[in-house]
Amino acid sequence: MDRDKLFRRISEERGRLIATLEGVSEEDLTTPGAADDWSVKDILAHISAWHDECLAALTALVAGKKWNVEYDIDEWNQEKYRERKDLALDQVWEDFHRSYSQLCDLLLNTLPEKLSDEEIMEWISESTYAHYLEHCEDILTWRLKRRPPMRTGEA
After folding, report:
1. Nearest to 41 by CA among 151, 139, 154
2. pLDDT per residue as tens digits for the range 77-100
3. Which domain holds residue 111?
4. Does residue 7 lie within any of the structural domains?
5. Is residue 23 part of a domain?
6. Res 152: pLDDT
7. What does the alpha-carbon distance between residue 34 and residue 3 come to, in Å, rounded to a whole number?
8. Which residues, including other chains, have CB under 8 Å from residue 33's CB and lie 6 or more apart?
């Protein structure tokens, strides 16, 4: 995938994720249940954690080093959840925007010629657009469950 298409895909899916949050109160963003026991805030913190991990991996890979970290994904996700669950919503939003910006900077300034590398592209897709899509679906499902039922005769 060329760089322009990659950035368009990342930007579109991130925009879709953020759009799913329109009209959701701060209280609701911090209420568990959006993805099992996680709140929307926890989902955003989780995405930020993967942005940070992707940055570390890509920095190593671009430098020609191996990234030999073995993951038990569920365990890693729970560890990052425990580390970030008590962060304030403002801090989570700040981390979400910071980590995204840093990842985009790295992609723009360092990687254009490396986008054909399969390992690098897997890190990018799984930490950005595919990940946003996964959690966008979680949030949309959560929102639909929370919607009050329509009364007969309402459109």
Report:
1. 139
2. 999 999 999 999 999 999 999 999
3. 3-11+35-145
4. yes
5. no
6. 63
7. 32
8. 39, 142
Write the pLDDT tens digit of every residue in 35-90: 999 999 999 999 999 999 999 999 998 888 988 888 899 999 999 999 999 999 99
Work out the angle at residue 36's Cα, subtended by the Cα atoms of residues 11 and 143, and round it to the nearest 5 degrees: 60
Residue 28 lies in a domain: no
Give the orientation angle of helix 3-19 with respect to helix 89-110, to 10 degrees. 170
- The chain-wide mean pLDDT, for the chain, equals 92
* Six token digits for residue 7: 């950035």
Q: Quick one: pLDDT at residue 150?
A: 57
Closest CA to 100 of 11, 26, 6, 4: 11
List 38's β-bridge partners, or say none: 35
Q: pTM for this structure? A: 0.91
The answer to whether position 25 is within a domain reads no
How many structural domains comprise the chain?
1
